[in-house]
Write a structure and sequence with these properties.
The chain is of the alpha+beta class and 678 residues long. Helices cover 18% and strands 31% of the residues. It is built from 13 helices and 37 strands. Strand 19 (277-282) and strand 20 form a beta hairpin.
């Protein structure tokens, strides 16, 4: 593949380097959903891209032949095809799609192409699914049919919902594949009732049992009730396998069917920020045993193969694959070098001797790769980086500094391609969400904040892995417990001071922005700091009490702040941006989804009114019909364009943006990728 890149560089017709547009960034294709066939002959993967015509992101399935690298598109059309899964004999790829009737169903297609066969006609949308080990059955999750009592209620009283009681429970179903190949089937319901709702599951090696995790109801506030169960298909008997405080999920059978590995908080009630564990339990029942107590990060369970249990984990600004030897508990890192950025969820052949995955780096987009676990020598199967080879992009590197309280903080600094250390640049701080998210070096930025366009104009961008971020161990993740906003602001402000001290930054041209938890930290900086010329608050918390009483994950607040607003009003005052609104001076752009349940929109209105009451310049944009994220291309374009214009005005002196009546290209003049940057 390196030889291929050399050849491309020699082609005379190659385009000159150019700065990407907003539309260029949004239209970049993204690979994911990697699945290697049981015999290792093929790798299936999904490709997601923006379709502006129907204003949707569409995902389709591709297949690559591992020997030759030849790849072809397997599914097409306006509707997405997701979650490819190989049959055990490798003859079929099952996938889910809402292409028929607008409700998610299961389909199967041969890897060399042809017409897809619809397998299910479930009454409700199909969720997760998996083939049995002999390929004769497929299990899937789906909600039960609407009960007659609910239909009668609607018919007489119309539509309403009883909060924290009106739920649709998800259960396990199976289909006989041979029967479904003849005509789609509804499936056989295996679990029932309102005692639990099924989340994740996996088949036993002998195909006689299914291990699954379930919570007592579908509400996110009940996530801590996730326990493990085993369903015996003969008679559909259900046995509870693991019952302890905190969530237990993602079961994975041992190759011999005697044990089940799973992700667990091992009884901890602080599972939002404490390390998760990988534990094992006898499949017939017994006491769970944690295998990763000595591993200081969250492990993401991937597979149990003959040579051990594989899991992924973030390591500062890298992502690696590890293997546990269950008898000894020894943990070995499989992947290298240290800076490797492995995609979540490696896929293994049946014998575990080959695996497929995505990799990305500071210079390259994600591509699909193939390797043996040992020795780890990744071989590229795709070339999504061809799309950006003629773009002028910033260079990114990891830097570190000391925060106000002495904590060592890392961040990712993006420099313009022609960076000159003798010059002073505008600085934009982009703050990730989570708070247990993490930023790592990457070549382009495709959501909300047009880092690449600002770099081309002459700006530095700092993405801060503030206290509480993942990848730095449990102690670091706990540093903002009962210190949210306050300590986070120290980390961002000290990063700004560090770059100013190096002589690289014009202190009068500094901006900050972020989404979700990053939006909250941005709101905190807007009211409690004077370092910034402009700020953008995306889906951010402005008042923790308002948030606590309205969010769909109230336990998150209790975990981090320790109590509710009535019993500990002082901690809610200390950590809320609205507590400091009287000293706010910084112009603020507020962006929020109309139907956001995670950070409900009253937080945005509260901040907007507080700023307006004090004469602080503020604009608020509500993205109609969206929840916590903006997941349609046109609105994603608007989101990025609004931020671009806001900071271009306050940091470069461009005209103040007119969000109400923006300049829109005429239909006859508009071309693909015409939305311009600076």
């Amino acid at each position: 593949m390196r030889f291929l890149f050399c050849l491309l560089a020699l082609i005379p017709a190659a385009q000159a380097a150019r700065v990407p547009t907003v539309d260029d960034l949004i239209k970049l294709q993204t690979p994911g959903g990697v699945q290697i066939s049981p015999d290792g002959r093929y790798v299936a993967y999904t490709v997601r891209e923006a379709d502006f015509e129907q204003n949707a992101y569409v995902t389709h399935i591709w297949v690559a032949e591992t020997a030759s690298g030849r790849a072809w598109q397997l599914t097409r059309g306006k509707k997405s095809a997701r979650a490819p899964r190989w049959s055990p004999d490798g003859r079929w790829l099952a996938f889910s799609s809402d292409r028929e009737g607008g409700k998610n169903q299961l389909f199967a297609i041969p890897p060399d192409g042809g017409e897809a066969v619809q397998l299910t006609k479930a009454a409700t949308a199909v969720g997760a699914f998996a083939w049995s080990t002999d390929g004769k059955q497929v299990a899937f999750t789906a909600p039960e049919k609407e009960p007659q009592a609910l239909k009668d209620r609607k018919g007489h009283l119309g539509e309403f919902q009883v909060v924290r009681k009106d739920y649709s429970y998800s259960h396990l179903w199976t289909i006989d594949v041979a029967e479904a190949m003849k005509a789609p089937v509804e499936g056989r319901q295996r679990t029932k009732g309102r005692d639990f709702t099924v989340r994740s599951f996996s088949w036993s090696p002998d195909g006689a049992r299914i291990a699954f995790s379930a919570t007592i109801d579908p509400d996110l506030v009940r996530s801590d009730t996730a326990d493990l169960y085993v369903l015996a298909l003969a008679g559909d008997a259900v046995m509870k396998l693991v019952s302890q405080p905190g969530p237990d999920s993602s079961p994975e059978w041992s190759p011999d069917g005697k044990w089940i590995a799973f992700s667990s908080s091992m009884g901890s009630r602080e599972w939002f920020f404490a390390n998760r564990r990988i534990a094992i339990v006898p499949a017939q029942g017994g006491t769970p045993k944690s295998l990763t107590d000595s591993f200081d990060e969250d492990p993401f369970l991937s597979a149990w193969k003959p040579d051990g249990i594989y899991f992924g984990a973030i390591q500062k600004t890298a992502m690696h694959l590890f293997r546990i030897d269950p008898p000894s508990g020894r943990i070995t890192r499989v992947t290298s070098p240290d800076s490797l950025q492995l995609g979540f969820g490696a896929s293994f052949t049946q014998d575990g001797k080959q695996m497929a995955f995505t990799l990305r780096s500071a210079e390259e987009l994600s591509d699909v790769y193939l390797s043996a676990p040992e020795p780890f020598k990744p071989r590229r199967l795709t070339n999504f980086n061809a799309a950006i080879r003629d773009w002028t992009l910033p260079r990114e590197e990891v830097i570190a500094w000391t925060s106000k309280d002495g904590t060592r903080i890392e961040g990712v600094l993006a420099k313009p391609a022609d960076f000159d250390p003798a010059k002073k640049y505008a600085l934009l701080c982009v703050i990730h969400g989570g708070p247990t998210g993490v930023d790592w070096p990457q070549p382009v930025h495709t959501y909300a904040y047009p880092v690449d366009l600002w770099a081309a104009r002459g700006a530095l961008t700092l993405r801060v892995n503030y206290r509480g971020s993942g990848g730095y161990g449990e102690r670091f993740r706990k540093l903002n417990v009962r210190n949210l906003g306050v300590g986070d602001a120290w980390d961002v402000e000290s990063g700004v001071d560090y770059l100013i001290s190096k002589g690289w930054v014009d202190p009068k041209r500094v901006g900050a922005m972020g989404w979700s938890q990053g939006g909250y930290i941005s709101a905190f900086l807007a009211t409690a700091s004077t370092k910034f010329a402009a700020i953008s608050v995306g889906a951010g918390i402005s008042n923790w009490a308002t948030y606590y009483y309205n969010t769909d994950i109230t336990p998150f607040t209790i975990h981090y702040l320790g109590d509710d607003p009535v019993d500990d009003p002082e901690i809610y005052r200390k950590t809320s941006p609205m507590s400091y609104i009287k000293q706010a001076r910084t112009p603020v752009l507020i962006q929020h989804g109309e139907l956001d349940r995670r950070v409900p929109i009253p937080n945005a209105y509260e901040l907007r009114q507080g700023l307006e009451d004090r004469g602080v310049p503020v604009e608020m944009i509500v993205y109609k019909g969206f929840g916590h994220g903006i997941d349609k291309p046109k609105e994603a374009r608007a989101l990025m364009q609004h931020n671009l214009e806001w900071f271009n005005h306050y940091l470069w002196g461009d005209p103040r943006p007119d969000f109400l009546t923006p300049k829109v290209p005429k239909a006859a003049e508009k071309k693909e990728g015409e939305t311009r940057g600076p």
